[in-house]
Design goal:
Elements: H1 14-24, E1 39-47, E2 53-62, E3 68-77, H2 88-99, E4 108-111, H3 124-132, E5 136-140, E6 158-163, E7 166-172, E8 181-187, H4 191-200, H5 209-222, E9 229-230
Helix pairs in contact: 2-3
The structure holds two DNA strands.
GO biological process, one term: DNA repair
Function: DNA repair enzyme involved in the repair of deaminated bases. Selectively cleaves double-stranded DNA at the second phosphodiester bond 3' to a deoxyinosine leaving behind the intact lesion on the nicked DNA.
Organism: Candidatus Thermokryptus mobilis
Length: 240
DNA sequence: GCGACAG
DNA sequence: ATCTTGTCGC
């Protein structure tokens, strides 16, 4: 039963959603991580074609081993459409439902989407971070806003992402000569730490393990290959 | 008005 | 996001 706070309704119009973002953006904190990282979580959602059924999941991995220690998978419905800049209002409700069932609260959460690399500096990673009051990192596969120079070809190189003259994130090469990912601060973390953590959780694929594993698991859930629930669910047997 | 636009 | 086989390159 991980903690989270309700700061607003999800049953809002796009215009109201924008107002909420402009209000909550002031709650985002940029600060160094406190203490060592013991657990890192990955969160993602999956959909069927033109369906409003959402399959959401939060996976908790031990750091730096990246072995799964907890998971929460839920199936719900959504009606808010996908609108660039308002992704959080479509995916966060389901992610929060999965989050509240987690037993092991992670020290940092990696989310498939932008953090402050957003028009109003309040992408889904920042929004989710503020709601669960945990450090979060935004790791997106494509660009939403900003300009950047192509980073050098080898893994580990990055170039800053700028928007309106300010640095909002980086284009980070996680694999040699492979399309970079876009990393930005979500909440309660620094950009440097975010970059380091992403690189430390990359295991041979472009996408770092937390979000990659979360993506694989919610897709398996959508295809009916696995059932919703928690790692500590009686129906699923014991932990180890 | 035109083009861009996380998942 | 999702629909999908083969194909090019390290």
């Amino acid at each position: 039963m991980a903690f989270y706070r309700t700061l607003h309704s999800w049953d809002v119009s796009p215009d109201e959603a924008i107002k909420i973002q402009n209000q909550l953006r002031n709650l985002v904190k940029v600060e160094k991580l406190v203490g060592e990282i013991r657990y890192i979580a990955g969160a993602d959602v999956s959909f069927d074609k033109g369906s409003n059924v959402v399959y959401a999941g939060v996976l908790v991995l031990k750091f730096p081993e990246l072995e799964e220690v907890d998971r929460s998978l839920v199936v719900t419905e959504v009606n808010f459409p996908y609108i660039p800049g308002l992704l959080s209002f479509r995916e966060s409700p389901a992610l929060i439902k999965a989050w509240e069932k987690i037993k092991i609260a992670p020290d940092v959460v990696m989310i498939d989407g932008q953090g402050i690399a957003h028009p109003r500096r309040f992408g889904i990673a920042s929004h989710f971070g503020v709601l669960v009051d945990k450090p979060t990192i935004g790791c997106a596969k494509s660009l939403l806003v900003g300009v950047y120079e192509e980073p050098k070809g080898e893994a580990g190189n990055f170039s800053y992402l700028y928007d309106s003259g300010e640095i909002i994130g980086v284009a980070l090469r996680t694999r040699d000569n492979v399309q970079p990912v876009f990393v930005s601060i979500g909440h309660k973390i620094t950009l440097d730490e975010s970059i380091q953590i992403v690189m430390k959780t990359v295991r041979g694929y472009r996408i770092p393990e937390p979000t990659r594993q979360a993506h694989l698991i919610v897709n398996a859930l959508r295809r009916g290959e696995i059932k919703p629930g928690t790692r500590t669910n009686p129906e699923q047997g014991s932990l180890f």
